[in-house]
Amino acid sequence: MGWRQLYNRKLLSKKEAALKIASNSRVVLGHAAGTPVDVIDAMVDNKEKFKNVEIVHMLSLGEGKYMNEDMEPHFRHNAIFVGGNSRKAIKEGRADYTPCFFYEVPRLFKEENFKVDVAIVQLSKPDNHGYCSFGVSCDYTKPATEAADIVIAEVNDKMPRVMGENFIHISDIDYIVETSNELYELPAPNIGDVEKKIGENCAKLIDDGSTLQLGIGAIPDAVLMSLGEKKDLGVHTEMFSDGVLELIEKGVINGKAKTLHKNKMISTFLMGSKKLYEFIDNNPSVELYPVDYVNHPCTIMKNDKMISINSCIQVDLMGQVVSESIGLNQFSGVGGQVDYVRGSSMAREGKSIIAIPSTASKGRISRIVPFITEGSAVTTSRNDVHYIVTEYGIANLRGKTLKERAKALINIAHPDFRKELEVEYNKRFK
Ligand code: COA
Questions:
Q1: Which of these is catalytic: 154, 238, 324, 391?
Q2: Percent of the chain having pLDDT more than 70?
Q3: What is the Cα gyration radius of the chain?
Q4: Among the atoms of ligand 1, which is closest to the Cα of residue 379?
Q5: Domains plus CATH for the chain?
Q6: Which of 10, 71, 126, 240 could cross-link to 176 by cystine, CB 3.0-4.6 Å?
Q7: Does the beta carbon of 361 lie inside 6 Å of ligand 1?
Q8: Each residue of 252-277: pLDDT tens digit?
Q9: DSSP β-ladder status, 75-79 and 150-156
Q10: In a mutational test of the pocket of ligand 1, which residue from 90, 312, 330, 332 has the highest number of ligand atoms less than 8 Å from its CB?
């Protein structure tokens, strides 16, 4: 049977598709801007038909109504990353958190105790050969479809067709719901003086010909703003956003010096504005691959001069980096931070940078602290950490003693907090 016939046979309404999900099953949702929309709405609208359905995802950009209080007997969320829409449910104990490096999530889906019953994903329209692109989210979304017993796809005519190992054939999908939804967009970050200074300090560590990993938000964009005079930069990253577009237009990012996937921008998901989504559509210079390839430290390390830039909540005087929790409160997740810290450290001439404003909560709290808050999880260990950058400077912790580390970190702390950090330093080391 031709793929067009198959396609037509698999078409269902959103309610019919939702009702294919059995009670007590585990459902994985497509990630980030690829979060499915219509089938989720139908699940929530028909909640009484479902009992104890576990909903698994990392970042999700929808409203996440299945996490509301009245959904409790029907749906329970299991988070591998906590975002804005799941923080409250996690805090109130109505949802769970499972720690896992991003690059290992596809492997988790293959394990006996994490069996995936259903994957619900968003796809682009099929091409002439019957292949749909996963569009903006390849990451664990494609691997979830390979692990699941049932694949439900929202074929969205607004989903860009993005290259790479980022396709699925109609024959590998069980049910199709046609949709026409604008993609979720990321609001532009606010870049203030502090972020600009951090960006300038990070730029001092980035040589011409480097390959970059940058996360989401104001600091990564501020770093990019400081790179206008560099040459031949490349991108190998977990995700990128609009911040790279200007540097591509200027020819600063061209991938010419990359030692892996030369001339290509490699990522595992993408999230930004409509401008970004237009740029990536059918663009052969952008390729998405599953996260167990892109974020694997052994892949990352093949990029000479690999630079990773991530952020954190706290760093203690030994260089232990807390990035995902504030005490026992799970604020986000490990995401790809450690994947890139390790991959960059293993790369020839690689550097991993944790870039932070020196304070949090409008200057009331120092992020550089004598002790991490009780209950917080260490994300990047003191053995893995390399550079810490604030608006006050750069601390290279590699090869430094505990005493030297403490000194280097105090030197880049906010001046208002240096005295109390020195009191602790003197207690420990004198
Ligand atoms: N003590 C108490 N509260 C703190 C704090 C601290 N030391 N540090 C931050 N906070 C609060 C802030 O005040 C802010 O709350 P507010 O919005 O009410 O003011 C909140 O926590 C978020 O802090 P902020 O640093 O502004 O968040 P961010 O959006 O820049 O994200 C991380 C920072 C660390 C949470 C984020 O980078 C992350 O999740 N990292 C781990 C995953 C990762 O690195 N992935 C890899 C690449 S995508």
A1: 238
A2: 100
A3: 22
A4: 41
A5: 3-179 (3.40.1080.10), 193-429 (3.40.1080.20)
A6: 10
A7: yes
A8: 999 999 999 999 999 999 999 999 99
A9: unpaired
A10: 332
